[in-house]
TrEMBL record:
SUPFAM superfamilies: Nucleotide-diphospho-sugar transferases (SSF53448). One of its GO terms (cellular component) is membrane. This is Cellulose synthase (UDP-forming). InterPro entries: Cellulose_synth, Nucleotide-diphossugar_trans. It is a multi-pass membrane protein. It comes from Opuntia streptacantha. GO terms for biological process: cell wall organization; cellulose biosynthetic process. Its EC number is 2.4.1.12. One of its GO terms (molecular function) is cellulose synthase (UDP-forming) activity. Its main location: membrane. The lineage of its organism: Eukaryota, Viridiplantae, Streptophyta, Embryophyta, Tracheophyta.
Length: 269
């Protein structure tokens, strides 16, 4: 557990392939030309077990080489599930243009006094160096990590990652960008993170079904970028993000392209 101002998020099947990834991400955060609204730095997903043919496109080439660089010219890509450094403040659920935390902090963040005190932007974290943590601090840490801590709070709804969808990354990113946060896409030559990709049709179908169902669920919910209010998302960003949400229904057009021409040929139309 940490109260570091920045958090690295990785899936369990990903690992760091280059120790300078944090330094590269911090270059954006500490650059005086970077606006304070920068919420996260997104790296692409790269894999170590891709076959030579990759007939199922497990490495998602179009996503990382075309779509995400295009998003980078707007308000940045949505959170891609893993391989990103996110600013802790972005997870606190406040509008970046307002700059203030909710007044009802206890109802939002829970009843941990130590945690509530650390929310202040003027509060400096106290690192434990060369000594054992106090019993009080350990008790507080156990309390924060307990399953009942979030009950009756805004965690999973207005604070932290959203729990309402299997595509919690996209839903969280849409919420943050609608409240003024931005992101950047960083794709260096050397892969900063590597992971394990799907290698057979069954795995591709299971993973694809989960992803597409989650994205469409977000698109049909109140978090749809086209209808979400209040919104600070740019118009082009809304269109691009909505396309991501409704990407699963592209299958209808593909089905038409694959079925109608053969039928026309068969019946001589």
């Amino acid at each position: 557990m940490s109260n570091s101002p920045y958090i690295l998020v990785l899936d369990c099947d990903m690992y760091c392939n280059d120790s300078i990834s944090a330094r590269e991400a911090m270059c954006f955060y500490v650059d005086p030309r970077t606006p304070s609204s920068l919420g996260w730095v997104q790296y692409p997903q790269k894999f170590h077990n891709i076959s030579e043919t990759d007939i199922y496109d497990s490495q998602l080439r179009t996503l990382w080489t075309v779509y995400w660089p295009g998003f980078d010219g707007l308000q940045g890509p949505v959170i891609s599930g893993t391989n990103f450094y996110i600013k802790r403040e972005a997870l606190y659920g406040f509008d970046i243009n307002d700059g203030s935390l909710p007044k009802d902090r206890g109802d939002c963040f829970g009843s941990s006094n130590e945690f509530l005190k650390s929310l202040s932007q003027n509060d400096k974290s106290k690192a434990i160096k060369g000594r054992e943590p106090s019993p009080l601090l350990l008790k507080e840490a156990h309390f924060l990590a307990s399953c009942i801590y979030e009950k009756g709070t805004k965690w999973g709804d207005k604070v932290g990652f959203r729990y309402d969808s299997v595509a919690e990354d996209a839903m969280t990113a849409i919420y943050l960008q609608n409240h003024g946060w931005r992101s950047v896409y960083l794709n260096p030559t050397r892969p900063q993170f590597l992971g394990t990709a799907t290698t057979n049709l069954n795995e591709v179908l299971v993973q694809g079904t989960r992803w597409n169902a989650g994205l469409l669920d977000v698109g049909l919910s109140k978090y749809c970028p086209l209808i979400y209010r209040p919104s600070r998302m740019q118009f082009l960003q809304k269109l691009a993000t909505s396309w991501i949400n409704f990407y699963p229904i592209d299958c209808l057009a593909l089905l038409g392209f694959s079925v109608i021409p053969p039928l026309c040929f068969l019946y001589g139309i």
